[in-house]
Amino acid sequence: MKEWINIQLLTAFVLAFGGLVMLFCGIYISPLGQIHESLLVAFGEVATFAGSLFGIDYVYKRKKK
Questions:
Q1: Distance from C-alpha of 43 to C-alpha of 60, rounded to nearest angstrom
Q2: Which domain holds residue 10?
Q3: What tens digit of pLDDT does each residue of 13-39 get?
Q4: Which residues fall within 8 angstroms of residue 62, CB to CB, at 6 or more apart?
């Protein structure tokens, strides 16, 4: 069970960090025709939200013990 919690925490961190990076890329990098900024922002929002859900779940599982 402890290994699962560590994997979940790592996944939450990677998703949240990746989502934030994509959000900043969507704001500061002009698209060169390959990736539109709205796609970067949408992916960033989804990844940040998923990371936050994993993180919240991790916190409540830890408090439960």
A1: 26
A2: 2-64
A3: 887 788 778 777 767 777 655 667 677
A4: 5
Beta-carbon contacts of 64 under 8 Å, excluding residues fewer than 6 positions away, are none
For residue 41, CA distances in Å to 5, 48, 55 come to 29, 10, 21
In whole angstroms, give the CA distance from residue 9 to residue 59.
9
User: Tokens standing for 23?
Assistant: 């959000």
Residue with tokens 């939450």: 12
Coil, helix or strand for 24? helix
- What is the count of structural domains for the chain? 1
pTM summary value: 0.56
Q: Which residues contact 15 (CB under 8 A, 6 or more apart)?
A: 47, 48, 50, 51, 54
Task: List the structure tokens of 14.
Answer: 């990677």
